[in-house]
Amino acid sequence: MIVMENINKLYTADQEQIHVLKNISLTIEEHEFVAVMGPSGSGKSTLINTISFLDGDFEGSYRFEGEDAYRFNDEKLSALRNKSVGFVFQAFQLIDNNTVMENVALPLLYGGMKQKQTKPLVMEALRKVGIADKYNKLPKQLSGGQQQRVAIARALAMKPEI
Which ranges constitute the DSSP H helices of 66-161? Predict the structure, then answer.
């Protein structure tokens, strides 16, 4: 599903080049579970951003489902991010004025689904993370852990490949 070969990523900061990803090669098969671990500043977020079609500024080869991932146009990359990638942001990125259900439904709506079609998928995702009873609450009415579960449910709602 994902094949990366000799991925290199450099940043320039204060006229100094920082080589964040150095000759990264990896293969991730369908249904394989992979953890990216390392110390702060080691390139974990940069690698995840590359894998999830957020950062195409790198050297090397990245093939997704047999195709060169960054040869797609912006519209195709946006569709891949919406349908194929589930994101759980470090700061959750929940919308304060939206209920849990509305927050989890967002990627479904962005993907073109009608509002009334989203409820079963949202409730399934909320059940998976153990907070289906919180569907009508606002993020500020939840604990930090519950907010994190909402973010995870939102990532799962589209049943993404990544």
Answer: 74-84, 100-110, 115-128, 144-157
CA nearest to 9, candidates 34, 42, 35, 52: 42
pLDDT, tens digit (0-9, with 9 covering 90-100), for 103-148: 999 989 988 899 899 999 999 999 999 999 999 999 999 999 999 9
Q: How far is CA 129 from CA 13, 14, 17, 122, in A?
A: 40, 43, 42, 11
Give, for 67, the enclosing helix (H) or strand (E).
strand 67-68
pTM for the predicted model, two decimal places: 0.73
CA 128 to mean position of chain CA atoms = 18
- Three-state DSSP at 158 gives coil
Angle between helices 115-128 and 144-157 (to 10 degrees): 120
Say how far apart CA 5 and CA 27 lie, in whole Å.
Answer: 9
Residue 49's nearest CA partner among 17, 4, 13 is: 4
Q: Which of 117, 114, 119 is nearest to 104 (CA)?
A: 119
Alpha helix positions (H), 7-57: 44-51
